Structure formats: C-alpha cells, structure tokens
Amino acid sequence: MSASPIAVVTGGAGFIGSHTVDKLIELGHRVVVLDNFSTGKRANLARWLDARHRFDGEQPALEIVTCDVAHGIFAALAAITTKYGPVERIVHLAAQVSVVASVANPLVDMQVNYGGTLHVLEYARAMGVKKVAFASSAAVYGEVSQMPVGEDTPTKPMSPYGIDKLASEFALDYYAAVHGVATTALRFFNVYGPRQDPTSPYSGVISIFADRAKAGQQLVIFGDGQQTRDFVYVGDVVRAIVAAVGDGNSRAVANVGTGGEITVVELARTLVDLCTGAAAPRAERSGIVHAPARAGEILKSRARVDVLRDRFGVVAETKLVDGLRATLADH
Ligand SMILES: NC(=O)c1ccc[n+]([C@@H]2O[C@H](COP(=O)([O-])OP(=O)(O)OC[C@H]3O[C@@H](n4cnc5c(N)ncnc54)[C@H](O)[C@@H]3O)[C@@H](O)[C@H]2O)c1
Residue 223: is it exposed, middle or buried by C-beta count within 10 angstroms (0-12/13-18/19+)? Predict the structure, then answer.
C-alpha cells in the first residue's frame, strides 16, 4: 500500500471543493471527501468514482464519506484512518453558503459554519493533523469604503454568514496559539468557474449570467450595475488552497482575489459578447435589464493580495475573459 499522505476535503463535492480534490489527487494525495451533499454533487467528482481510484485500488485515490460536519468528523473518518493511516492535512470548505439563508436561519448557519469549524479543529488537535486550511470569505469585512481591502481592514460582518466565518477565523487562531494546530484562513472574494451551480438564486452572479447569456435570455442587473467585484477564477483559488494546506505557515489570514475589480455591467456585456460575438446583430444578443437595487448590497469590492503572494507565492493569473470562456463551456 502506498504511503501517500491522506488529505481530507470537507465540502469536497461542491464547486470549489471538487476542483480542489482534482488538484490534490493529481499531486499524489489520497483524498477523503466529507460532504452531506446539500449543495454538492457526486457528479462533480465523476472522474475519480471508478474502482481504480479507491484507496485499495490503484493510485491516485478518493474515498467519499457522507457526513454532516455540524455533527463532528471523528466517526466519519475512523474506519478509513484505522485501515489506511492518519489524516495529514484538512481543507475545510463545507459550509452553508447562502448569506440570505444565514439571515433567515442564523442558528443553522452557526451550527454548520462555526460549529463545523470547531469539529474540524477538535479533530486536528486530537489527531495531530499537520495543517488546516479554511475557506473564509470577504463577507467578514462588511461594507468597506477604502479599496483595495487589506487583511488589516477592520472586520464588520453584516450577516450571520460573515459573523460565523469570522468566528471560525478566531477559532483557527485560538487552536494555533493554544493547541499548536497550524492553520490558515483564506478570505475568498467572488469565485467563479465551471461547476458553479446556476440554479441557486444565491449562486455567483457569473454562473447565473453565463447560463442566461448562453440561452439568449435577459441578464438582470440589480441597480445601475456600477457595483464592482473582484472576480477570481476557481483554478487560481485552488492554487491558493493547495499552497496554504501544504505549507507550515500558521496563523496566517490571506485574501484570495485578483487585486482588480470590474463592474457588474461590464461583466454582463463581456458575457453577452462572448456568447454571441461582439459583431452579432443586437436582436440575437441577450438583453441587459435593470431591476431595483438590493438593500444592503455592497457597492465596491477589491482585494489587496500581497499576503497571498508574499507568504504563499500565489498570484491569481487567469484573465477574466479566459475564465469566462471556461465557465461558458461548462453551461
Ligand atoms: N463561491 C464563492 O464565491 C465563495 C466566496 C467566499 C467563500 N466561499 C466559501 O468557500 C466554500 C466552498 O463554497 P462553494 O462556492 O464551493 O459552495 P458549494 O455549495 O458548491 O460547496 C459547499 C459544499 O459543502 C457541502 N456542505 C454544506 N453543508 C455541509 C455540512 N453540514 N456537512 C458537510 N458538507 C456540507 C455542500 O454539499 C457542498 O458540497 C464555502 O465555505 C464558502 O462559504 C465561497
């Protein structure tokens, strides 16, 4: 049996998680996915599902365990670690991902998004896991007037989702300082790419726009479309995750973005152009329409990314147009 290290990816059947699993397996890890399939799909892991990729088959290998992180991960991992050895690293991505749902049901958000992190950290402490990398979010900042947003910007989350991500960051820091668990929190900005689910109303704007632009349907922009976002391609996010989880750097917090920003209206126009060709007659192109602005929506967002570059050696390099092409190819 190969002694390649075991990495756990919670939420590994989801959008970012499944790309992370692909990369870790390609790098030679044996990967265990813990997921409750609330938004994740087995199909996202399709390329690893045949018998050759089981732990007792050939390398590389994946095992999937259905597990709710809000209820702990010891039992879910026991059989695998007894047979195949200890978990070396954990990428903790499993979360209730909707800000709107967190407002409607803050207790569930707390149980999954904060409680789940505590369960992961308790496991890491008890089992001597070498590194935990955690998916935090730009939501920890709330509304910020000064751009770009550095990690030293005061945090002021405006939703239970943002509060639970920030509480998780504090827990990571506590476990690192007091229990010696090496941890990194990555504050993702707006991640996009293939496998992002366009059917959820809370999904990233790019997956929703891509779906509609491809179908020749109207793109609905809330407000004037001058709100900006730092859209970062999932392949670049995965490079950040892999660097963070493979690294000894502890107590680090790093933004994951491009350092740039574009307006939502520019994004919509670019997608329409990519779908129809800029020269296509207007009638063949999806229309862009405006709906009333959404209350509480953040107007500007752009990450400062020097910590990611200097501590983890990662710079997001996928051009928006290339990332959008890859996203459209998936729709
Ligand atoms: N996509 C973004 O732009 C973005 C931005 C900031 C932060 N994040 C964070 O990145 C992580 C991954 O998000 P994503 O965009 O891939 O979303 P996703 O919904 O595709 O992935 C989340 C995964 O977690 C699983 N999950 C949910 N609750 C669970 C539970 N209780 N137990 C076990 N598994 C559970 C889901 O089934 C899914 O596979 C999340 O922590 C999210 O908060 C994402």
Answer: middle
Query: Ligand 1 within 6 A of 37 CB?
Result: yes
- Predicted pLDDT at 294: 85
| pLDDT value of position 283 | 45
Percent residues over pLDDT 70 in the chain: 95
Strands 228-229 and 87-92: what pairing?
unpaired
Q: Does ligand 1 lie within 6 Å of residue 95's CB atom?
A: yes
Say if ligand 1 is within 6 A of residue 303 CB.
no
Atom of ligand 1 nearest to the CA of 190: 3
Q: Within the chain, where are the H helices?
A: 15-26, 74-84, 99-104, 106-109, 115-127, 160-179, 205-214, 234-245, 264-276, 306-312, 320-329
Terminal Cα distance for the chain, rounded: 39
Any ligand 1 atom below 6 A from CB of 140:
no
* pLDDT one-digit tens code per residue, 139-169: 999 999 899 999 999 999 999 999 999 999 9
Q: Which residues of the chain have pLDDT under 50?
A: 1, 283
**Marked catalytic residue, from 161, 175, 192, 233:** 161
The amino acid at residue 200 is S
In the block, which residue shows the tokens 């147009």? 321
Cα-to-centroid distance, 268 and ligand 1 (Å): 25
Residues linked to residue 231 through DSSP beta bridges, in sequence order: 190
Could you give phi then psi for residue 289, rounded to 5 degrees? -120, 155
Q: Active site includes 114?
A: no
133 Cα: distance to centroid of ligand 1 (angstroms):
14
The verdict on pTM exceeding 0.70 is yes
| CATH number at 6-191+233-257+303-316 | 3.40.50.720
Pocket lining: 267 vs ligand 1, CB cutoff 6 Å: no
